[in-house]
Amino acid sequence: MIGVAMAEAGVAGIGRLTLSRRERMVMVEPRGSGMALFTLRAADEVRSAQFASAARDLDADMVAIAGAIIQQRRGTFDPSTHRDRYQEALRALIEAKLKSLPVTPREVITPPPVIDLMAALKRSLAQELLATGAMTAKQKQPKPAADRRQRSLLLPVAGGRRRKEQPTIDPAAVAARSRKKA
Fold first, then answer.
1. Helix (H, G, I), strand (E, B), or coil: what is residue 89?
2. Main-chain dihedrals φ then ψ at residue 64, nearest 5 degrees
3. Residue spans per domain, the chain
4. Comparing 10-14, 82-86, 135-139, 145-149, which segment has the lowest mean pLDDT?
5. Beta carbons of 14 and 25 less than 8 angstroms apart
6. Which has the closest alpha carbon to 27: 18, 35, 38?
7. Count of Cβ atoms closer than 10 Å to residue 6 Cβ
8. Which tens digits make up the pLDDT trace of 84-120?
9. How far apart are CA 30 and CA 57, in angstroms?
Protein backbone atom coordinates (compact mmCIF):
# COMPACT_ATOMS: atom_id res chain seq x y z
CA MET A 1 0.00 0.00 0.00
CA ILE A 2 2.63 2.51 1.06
CA GLY A 3 4.87 1.63 -1.88
CA VAL A 4 2.04 2.11 -4.40
CA ALA A 5 1.09 5.45 -2.84
CA MET A 6 4.74 6.59 -2.89
CA ALA A 7 5.09 5.54 -6.55
CA GLU A 8 1.91 7.43 -7.53
CA ALA A 9 3.12 10.53 -5.68
CA GLY A 10 6.65 10.19 -7.11
CA VAL A 11 8.37 10.48 -3.72
CA ALA A 12 10.93 8.58 -1.67
CA GLY A 13 11.19 8.32 2.12
CA ILE A 14 14.19 9.56 4.13
CA GLY A 15 14.91 8.21 7.60
CA ARG A 16 17.44 6.84 10.06
CA LEU A 17 18.41 3.21 10.62
CA THR A 18 20.92 1.62 12.99
CA LEU A 19 23.26 -0.82 11.20
CA SER A 20 26.30 -2.35 12.90
CA ARG A 21 25.86 -0.19 16.02
CA ARG A 22 25.90 2.98 13.93
CA GLU A 23 23.03 5.22 12.96
CA ARG A 24 22.83 5.85 9.22
CA MET A 25 20.71 7.99 6.96
CA VAL A 26 18.63 5.90 4.55
CA MET A 27 16.31 6.42 1.61
CA VAL A 28 13.33 4.13 0.92
CA GLU A 29 12.14 4.06 -2.67
CA PRO A 30 9.30 2.10 -4.32
CA ARG A 31 10.51 -0.54 -6.82
CA GLY A 32 7.93 -2.65 -8.65
CA SER A 33 5.79 -4.45 -6.09
CA GLY A 34 8.31 -3.85 -3.29
CA MET A 35 10.55 -1.19 -1.85
CA ALA A 36 14.32 -0.65 -1.92
CA LEU A 37 16.44 0.81 0.90
CA PHE A 38 19.66 2.74 0.22
CA THR A 39 22.13 4.05 2.77
CA LEU A 40 23.12 7.68 2.24
CA ARG A 41 26.31 9.54 3.05
CA ALA A 42 26.62 12.78 4.97
CA ALA A 43 27.77 15.88 3.10
CA ASP A 44 31.23 15.80 4.71
CA GLU A 45 31.73 12.19 3.50
CA VAL A 46 31.16 13.09 -0.15
CA ARG A 47 34.02 14.53 -2.19
CA SER A 48 33.99 15.77 -5.74
CA ALA A 49 35.77 13.61 -8.29
CA GLN A 50 39.44 14.50 -8.72
CA PHE A 51 40.29 12.79 -11.96
CA ALA A 52 43.07 14.09 -14.15
CA SER A 53 42.40 15.04 -17.74
CA ALA A 54 42.56 11.79 -19.68
CA ALA A 55 43.14 13.37 -23.09
CA ARG A 56 46.63 14.77 -22.54
CA ASP A 57 48.66 11.67 -21.59
CA LEU A 58 47.18 9.12 -23.97
CA ASP A 59 49.08 7.22 -26.62
CA ALA A 60 46.91 6.90 -29.75
CA ASP A 61 48.33 3.46 -30.60
CA MET A 62 47.56 2.11 -27.13
CA VAL A 63 43.98 3.47 -27.34
CA ALA A 64 43.56 1.73 -30.71
CA ILE A 65 44.86 -1.57 -29.29
CA ALA A 66 42.52 -1.27 -26.28
CA GLY A 67 39.59 -0.59 -28.64
CA ALA A 68 40.44 -3.68 -30.70
CA ILE A 69 40.58 -5.84 -27.55
CA ILE A 70 37.22 -4.47 -26.40
CA GLN A 71 35.61 -5.21 -29.78
CA GLN A 72 37.05 -8.73 -29.73
CA ARG A 73 35.78 -9.50 -26.21
CA ARG A 74 32.40 -7.80 -26.60
CA GLY A 75 29.29 -9.90 -26.00
CA THR A 76 25.96 -9.98 -24.24
CA PHE A 77 25.72 -10.56 -20.52
CA ASP A 78 23.82 -13.64 -19.41
CA PRO A 79 23.67 -13.88 -15.61
CA SER A 80 22.63 -17.55 -15.79
CA THR A 81 26.14 -18.46 -17.02
CA HIS A 82 27.73 -17.16 -13.80
CA ARG A 83 27.64 -19.18 -10.59
CA ASP A 84 28.16 -18.22 -6.97
CA ARG A 85 30.70 -20.91 -6.08
CA TYR A 86 30.73 -19.93 -2.42
CA GLN A 87 26.97 -20.41 -2.08
CA GLU A 88 27.15 -23.75 -3.93
CA ALA A 89 29.91 -25.03 -1.64
CA LEU A 90 28.02 -23.80 1.44
CA ARG A 91 24.82 -25.56 0.34
CA ALA A 92 26.74 -28.79 -0.36
CA LEU A 93 28.35 -28.61 3.10
CA ILE A 94 24.98 -28.03 4.80
CA GLU A 95 23.40 -30.95 2.91
CA ALA A 96 26.30 -33.24 3.82
CA LYS A 97 25.98 -32.31 7.50
CA LEU A 98 22.19 -32.84 7.44
CA LYS A 99 22.68 -36.32 5.96
CA SER A 100 25.48 -37.04 8.50
CA LEU A 101 27.96 -37.67 5.71
CA PRO A 102 31.68 -37.26 6.46
CA VAL A 103 32.90 -33.82 5.44
CA THR A 104 36.38 -33.68 3.95
CA PRO A 105 38.04 -30.31 3.52
CA ARG A 106 38.75 -29.26 -0.04
CA GLU A 107 42.31 -29.35 -1.27
CA VAL A 108 43.93 -25.94 -1.21
CA ILE A 109 45.23 -25.02 -4.62
CA THR A 110 48.55 -23.22 -4.51
CA PRO A 111 48.95 -20.55 -7.15
CA PRO A 112 51.69 -21.00 -9.73
CA PRO A 113 54.98 -19.28 -8.95
CA VAL A 114 55.36 -15.69 -10.05
CA ILE A 115 57.42 -15.29 -13.20
CA ASP A 116 60.23 -12.77 -13.10
CA LEU A 117 59.56 -10.87 -16.32
CA MET A 118 62.95 -9.14 -16.39
CA ALA A 119 64.80 -12.46 -16.05
CA ALA A 120 62.65 -14.00 -18.79
CA LEU A 121 63.32 -11.01 -21.06
CA LYS A 122 67.07 -11.23 -20.44
CA ARG A 123 67.05 -14.98 -21.19
CA SER A 124 65.10 -14.36 -24.38
CA LEU A 125 67.50 -11.64 -25.51
CA ALA A 126 70.50 -13.84 -24.71
CA GLN A 127 69.05 -16.71 -26.76
CA GLU A 128 68.41 -14.33 -29.64
CA LEU A 129 71.99 -13.04 -29.53
CA LEU A 130 73.40 -16.59 -29.48
CA ALA A 131 71.16 -17.62 -32.37
CA THR A 132 72.33 -14.74 -34.57
CA GLY A 133 75.98 -15.26 -33.67
CA ALA A 134 76.35 -11.66 -32.55
CA MET A 135 78.14 -12.64 -29.35
CA THR A 136 81.85 -12.05 -29.84
CA ALA A 137 84.87 -12.18 -27.57
CA LYS A 138 84.71 -8.40 -27.16
CA GLN A 139 81.23 -8.60 -25.59
CA LYS A 140 82.23 -10.66 -22.56
CA GLN A 141 80.33 -10.22 -19.34
CA PRO A 142 82.00 -7.74 -16.93
CA LYS A 143 83.51 -9.12 -13.74
CA PRO A 144 81.30 -8.78 -10.70
CA ALA A 145 82.21 -5.94 -8.36
CA ALA A 146 84.26 -6.74 -5.29
CA ASP A 147 82.33 -7.53 -2.12
CA ARG A 148 82.32 -4.22 -0.22
CA ARG A 149 80.21 -5.35 2.72
CA GLN A 150 81.65 -5.35 6.20
CA ARG A 151 83.23 -8.73 6.84
CA SER A 152 82.47 -8.61 10.55
CA LEU A 153 78.72 -8.57 9.79
CA LEU A 154 78.71 -11.49 7.33
CA LEU A 155 77.80 -14.96 8.49
CA PRO A 156 80.14 -17.80 7.52
CA VAL A 157 78.69 -20.00 4.79
CA ALA A 158 80.23 -23.30 3.77
CA GLY A 159 80.84 -24.09 0.11
CA GLY A 160 82.05 -22.16 -2.87
CA ARG A 161 85.56 -20.86 -3.26
CA ARG A 162 87.53 -19.90 -0.21
CA ARG A 163 88.70 -16.37 0.34
CA LYS A 164 91.56 -15.25 2.50
CA GLU A 165 90.28 -14.40 5.94
CA GLN A 166 91.01 -10.88 7.10
CA PRO A 167 91.41 -10.34 10.82
CA THR A 168 88.30 -8.87 12.39
CA ILE A 169 88.72 -5.65 14.31
CA ASP A 170 87.23 -5.33 17.78
CA PRO A 171 85.07 -2.13 17.80
CA ALA A 172 85.86 -1.52 21.49
CA ALA A 173 89.61 -1.51 20.75
CA VAL A 174 89.16 0.99 17.93
CA ALA A 175 87.07 3.26 20.16
CA ALA A 176 89.66 3.11 22.94
CA ARG A 177 92.51 4.03 20.54
CA SER A 178 90.71 6.98 19.01
CA ARG A 179 89.95 8.74 22.32
CA LYS A 180 92.18 11.63 23.22
CA LYS A 181 93.56 11.83 26.70
CA ALA A 182 93.23 15.18 28.46
1. helix
2. -65, -40
3. 2-42
4. 135-139
5. yes
6. 38
7. 16
8. 888 998 999 999 999 998 888 878 888 888 888 788 8
9. 44
